[in-house]
Write a structure and sequence with these properties.
By secondary structure, the protein is of the alpha/beta class. It binds pantoate (PAF). The site of pantoate has 10 residues, from strand 2 and helix 7.
Length: 281
């Protein structure tokens, strides 16, 4: 595996592969890699001739300075993990390499970015779109891989690719869970042992609610999930929205859409966790 730190170094290497007609796949990450990321990388390796993984903690998607500073950085371990799953290239650029000039672009993803994570993290999705479009421009992949755990992010990336008319296939990959059901996340590392045990109640409530759609209304299922999780004093639901999987807008009845997903954000102590479940897929 090769590690590149500059756009020029990476571009030159990729140009050679492109001339040979090789298919390039791309997985953007912010590092602190876990098995969830590795599942994307393995899929990318299997489906392409060249797999590029970026490790870059993108400042423009953080609306909170301490959150940016506290974000785990484990580049050496990340590079080893990437090597172990046969990744071809790790791209580990500096902020200056990614943003030689400040990126002033303002995207409009309404109404996708006006719900759920949107209002609580102003500017977040704009920053994600800035960095991902910049990486797409550098890497020019045929396929790019994103986890379904960040369900809203995935919808927004698909919308961005449509708006910018990029010839890139966006591949969504299923959530990877611990045996307990807890969705893998870099943030899980910040949970104490007791909190981690408690956090399992989030996915448990989501799983349990799936069969309820036969007998309960959308409103009833939504309230049941929120109340069930909030029963635990360590857990605090920020929102639980049951939405059309494509438009991300609330559904009122189960018959409103063919594809329905429940998206949740819960504070477990100080740690903000997200998860989702598909009611109709
Ligand atoms: O999902 C993430 O880790 C980030 O939002 C991404 C897509 C790598 C952009 O920085």
């Amino acid at each position: 595996m090769k590690v590149y730190k500059t756009v020029l170094g990476l571009s030159n290497a990729l140009e050679k592969y492109r001339k040979e007609g090789k298919k390039i796949g791309f997985v953007p990450t912010m590092g602190a890699l876990h098995n969830g990321h590795l599942s994307l990388v393995k899929k990318c390796v299997a489906e392409n001739d060249v797999c590029v993984v970026s490790i870059f903690v993108n400042p423009t998607q953080f609306n909170n300075k301490t959150d940016l500073e506290k974000y785990p950085r484990t580049v050496d371990a990340d590079v080893k993990l990437l090597q172990s799953v046969n990744c071809t290239i790790a791209f580990v650029p500096s902020v200056k390499q990614v943003y030689p000039k400040p990126d002033k672009r303002q995207f409009n993803f309404a109404p996708l970015d006006q719900v759920m994570e949107g209002p609580s993290r102003p500017g977040h999705f704009n920053g994600v779109a800035q960095v991902v479009s910049r990486f797409f421009d550098i890497v020019k992949p045929q396929k790019a891989y994103f986890g379904e755990k960040d369900f809203q992010q995935l919808a927004i990336i698909r919308e961005m690719v449509k708006q910018l008319k990029l010839p890139i296939e966006i591949v969504g990959c299923p959530i990877v869970r611990e045996e307990s059901g807890l969705a893998l996340s870099s943030r899980n590392a910040r949970l104490s042992a007791a909190e981690k045990k408690t956090a399992v109640k989030i996915s448990k409530a989501l799983f349990e609610s799936v069969d309820m759609i036969q007998t309960k209304s959308v409103e009833e299922v939504k309230n049941w999930v929120i109340n069930k999780i909030n029963e635990d004093p360590i857990l605090n639901v920020e929102y639980y929205e049951i939405v059309d999987s494509l438009t991300l807008q609330n559904v009122k009845k189960w018959s409103d859409s063919k594809y329905i997903t429940g998206c949740i954000t819960v504070y477990c102590g100080e740690v903000r966790l997200i998860d989702n479940i598909q009611y109709k897929k």
